[in-house]
Amino acid sequence: MVFNFLRQSVLLISALLTLPVMAQHAHGKGSLQLVLNEDVLQGQWSMPMEALLGFEHLPKTATQTEAMRKLQKSLESASYFIEVPADARCQQIEVRAESDMFQGIQSKGHSDLHFSFKLKCANPLALKKFDFPFFKSHIRSNQLKLEWVAQGSQKSATVRSSKPTFSP
Fold first, then answer.
1. pTM over 0.90
2. 22, 42, 45: which is closest to 112 by C-alpha?
């Protein structure tokens, strides 16, 4: 059993290392890596702040400050970004949202959001479809390059705001 777990972990790490490098900063376009290892679903999402807030500089107005505060608050839950099937019975065990802007640092170029999460799922076999509700709230976001790795298999796809779903 330990050997199988180690073997699967090595396969997943190897698969992640061979994933193509995601596109550089492009307005409206983000990237997501989803990895299912046993009963834990992990995600790493990157998106230009311009696509989420309409700007990528430190807030200059009360409206911009409030928009950034709302985004930070919303990202405390992975469900703001991704919806998993209810019958998978997943519980959030970790979430992290990072951006220079959240730290009050003006970037020298573009600003991006880096968001990661972990969900522990009681029924991981039910993870057959993922929805991305953030597209509804962020109309400047229009595309997500997705890489899926699970139990030794890989799949890539482009999820668009016009059809914000992915089925492995």
1. no
2. 45
